[in-house]
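Protein 1 of 2
SEQ + STRUCT:
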Amino acid sequence: MVFTIFFSNFASKFNIYVYFIVKKVYGILFSIMFVCIGCEWQLKPNTTEVEDETITIDRYDRIESQYLSTGDFAALQQMNTTYPRQTRMLIEDMLRIGKVDDPEINVKFLRFFQDSTLQTMLADVQDQYAEMDDISEELTNAFANLKEELPGMEMPDVYTQVGSFDQSVVVDNHSLGISLDKYLGADYPFYQQNYTEQQRSMMVRQMIVPDCLAFYILSLYPIPRDLALTQDGRDLYMGKIQWVVNHVMKRRIFKGTHVDTVNHLMTVHKDMTIDQLLSSKNLK
């Protein structure tokens, strides 16, 4: 009887002891879990923000070149299904060889690029631009700097394409298309036969990012109609955009009288914002 009471009291105390141990362990585990969740809450937005600001170049040019070089039907299907907007702009607006819904457009598109000069260019593009990580990183940094000056700006989607030595960069809404055939180097044989030395000096890999900035800014702040009527008005307005590109990239890429005029203005009016500069119609 005594043994039973003793054992009962001992078991009761043991259960209480275990209860407190378990309670303490759960408390510690809960605290650890809470800290981890807190860390996750704190880190996720920053990680997402970094990912959102990183510009990744979509290599549409590779699918395009595959079709134009080999006639690969699978590549053509991918162009039409994955990149319908890019394909329409390329065929209708840049090459101007017809409408994408034309039953014969695929044949016309393929035949257009059978020219030996264009076939050589397709291969040269894939050789020179096998890797574009350096350009992607430079685009990310440059547009991040531009966004600091224009906080409401939407970051662009960037893709690469191959034209027929037409436009360098095309802008559609918030999308930038880089025509790599216009950036094969100042000494590229076709350039030497068809462009001036000054033009060729701008047709290099190092000008891709500055040109992307300039064309994107121009899409956000189009030339006012009255300024567009005269060459001097257009040149002066482009001088503002070129100055902004220099400012954002922190080096003097674009030079000239109009850029110098804008630089003097911004030196005198240090409180003028980039938005005010680009929105103004004159430089007084």
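Protein 2 of 2
SEQ + STRUCT:
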Amino acid sequence: MSLSEDFKQKLKRYAEGTLPHGEREEVEREIARLEAYQAVLDEIMDGGDKGREPTQITGSGVTRDELREAKKERSIIRRGKWKARFVNTLTVLAVLLLITVVSSVITGIYYGNGEPNRMAIYRDVVTSAVAVSSPNMSVRLSGRGNAFFTMDLIGKLHKRVGDDDVIAGDYSVNFLFGMASTPQVSWLDEGNGGKYKFFHPDFKPSAGDGKEASRRDSGDWTTLERLPEGTVAEAYLSFGELFDTDALLALFEKKNLQPLWFASDTGPGSWWDDTGVVPNPVGFPYWPVWHESDLKPDHYKEEKWGWFGKIVTKSGSYPALNAYGDGELRNENFLNTLRILRTYKSIAKQTAPFIDIDGTIGYIEQNGVKLYGAVVTGPVKELMKLREEPWITHMRVGEVRLWNWSDR
């Protein structure tokens, strides 16, 4: 009951993974048949047959020596089978490693291609989406390319309170090629992002409906009065009329406060008819979000790096702004930011899902930039003085911090 030389050669080639497909199936069937016999052979070898004559067992005419030889041959087959499995496993792992390396190279080329490259462009789009849709909020992102054509943008959300830059939470968004996932936001303060509230000046309560007082409420002014004098805060202001950017900046010029963000009118459908609350304000920060197209370069140099890459060194400057002027430049930057979001609309839908980009751009291009609200920060006693301004109808208190202020 010995194995033929031909079958032994097939087993060897099977273990090495070089046996043709048809012969491989034949060998596997033979191995399966031998496996079925193994239990019987083990029972015969280990069972109660020791008292029998060595010349014959169970009337089969097979001697114990022949059974031992069969078991030895079965052991050889088993080792060959495990060797084949080991070789196959190594082959699969090698293929996976090769795919990982190749995909990593393709990922690096995809996100690193262009000037600016795609990683920088996507970072600009996400930063812009946060800037126009989240009052007094900015995000600073770093990019990290992965295998299998993915990239992560990870950073911190920041807001301004007094003279301090305050970290508000963690922010991350994943990309598969040019498709963005829903951002993951972890707020340090769970109430963050929902404290602000703006009211549109076109809201006109009907006489006798009990809402007349909402045109100029007093709730948060009382809260502001109770804060210690040695504190600073952010305040969300709503106006009783629409302002041009320059006109609004002029109103803040002589005040010991810092404007942070301006809410822009985007049309009649942007506020709730029954309360005048704007649920999803759109606007722009006092410090503009400058883009690659805004940079005025004074130095540019390219050097080849690797097979496909290059190293670019450049320097330049962004436009200078008058602290309480240059409204036209600020407005144009705002519109350019919205147009970038329109160009990368699939990313904007994930990172600023409540903005109607096309409708917003169309309305502002037709009617101009008109402002109905602002976020400001400064000492509590300076914020209290705004209560006497007739153009301010509502105020909501945001973050409060201990004194950290330099007079303007």
